Amino acid sequence: MDPLLANSTDRSPLPSGSPPSIGGTILTLLAFFALAAVALFVVTYPVASVVLLATAVVLAGVARNLAQLARRHRGSLRRIDVPGIGTVEYRVVRSRAD
Fold first, then answer.
1. Which residue, of 10, 21, 90, 98, has the fewest CB within 10 Å?
2. CA 6 to CA 1: how far, in whole Å?
3. Which residue segment(s) compose the domain that 75 sits in?
């Protein structure tokens, strides 16, 4: 019996119709390398890491606040006067996917 094609618990041969799944191991390996790359970046550039983390937190907060603002002003016409340029009118509407 070839040990590469045998079951490790009872040494019975694997069924020939089903090849071993390597999808999980490839994803695990890629996740490990991504985590290692992030850890190496954090250790090498600590200030840049803090700046990137703070930027991500601020962007998440801005996106959340914009979503709340859009829900609050849905369907209403708003105007912004820009001195020296003119007036901008906008309406927030929700598209309907029927």
1. 98
2. 7
3. 22-91
Does residue 7 lie within any of the structural domains? no
Instruction: Locate 95 and state its tokens.
Output: 């598209």
Q: Rounded CA gap, 9 and 1, in Å?
A: 14
Q: Give per-residue pLDDT as tens, 19-76.
A: 666 667 788 889 999 999 999 999 999 999 999 999 999 999 999 988 887 777 676 7
Structurally, the chain folds into a number of domains equal to 1
Q: Which of 87, 88, 89, 92 is nearest to 69 (CA)?
A: 92
CA distance 15 to 86: 75
CA atoms of 38 and 56, how far apart (whole Å): 15
Question: What distance in Å separates the CA atoms of residue 37 and residue 15, rounded to the nearest whole number?
Answer: 38
